[in-house]
Write a structure and sequence with these properties.
With about 110 residues, the chain is an all-alpha fold. Helix content is about 55%, strand content about 0%.
Length: about 110
């Protein structure tokens, strides 16, 4: 979607309010006016569409399995505990200085 520069004659009071609202919303004057006009004209801008997609993704990721059974986050297996490492390699004292790296990696 291309953008062009347009010249508009607006009252100073309106521009002051537009600037204040733009600052509150973390945007600039052009961005706010573009959003206001798009909403008024019921036109979805690419920025609005992207925000909708991310909002839906966030809702899906934060939903429970009951709400969306087809979409589940799989938990990764936890790393092996020290006890499991010792069980595989014998006692802790069997990990000598030369084998310490090998014992901690397995």
């Amino acid at each position: 979607m291309g953008k062009s520069v347009y010249s508009l004659a607006l009252s100073d009071e309106i521009i002051a309010e537009v600037d204040r609202l733009a600052y509150q919303n973390g945007t600039n004057r052009s961005g706010l006016i573009n959003s206001i006009l798009a909403e008024y004209l019921q036109f979805t801008t690419p920025e609005q569409r992207m925000r909708e997609v991310f909002d839906r993704m966030e809702k899906l990721l934060l939903s429970t399995e009951a709400e969306h059974p087809a979409f589940q986050l799989l938990s990764l297996p936890s790393p092996p505990s020290v006890i499991n490492i010792i069980r595989r390699h014998g006692t802790a004292s069997s990990c000598t200085a030369s084998r310490r790296t090998e014992c901690s990696e397995n």
